[in-house]
């Protein structure tokens, strides 16, 4: 739907717009990057 038109209709009807809820990401532990001692050669 056209978001502007939906907003206008909802305002005329006196309805509340549905707000999009942002997903809360879980907190991750910060780990240092592993530094390879030798090059990865196949």
From TrEMBL:
Return the protein name: Putative integrase
Lineage, highest ranks first: Bacteria, Pseudomonadati, Pseudomonadota, Gammaproteobacteria, Enterobacterales
């Amino acid at each position: 739907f056209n978001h502007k038109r939906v907003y206008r209709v909802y305002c005329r009807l006196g309805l509340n717009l549905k707000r999009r809820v942002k997903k809360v990401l879980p907190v991750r532990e910060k780990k240092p990057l592993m530094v390879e001692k030798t090059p990865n050669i196949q």
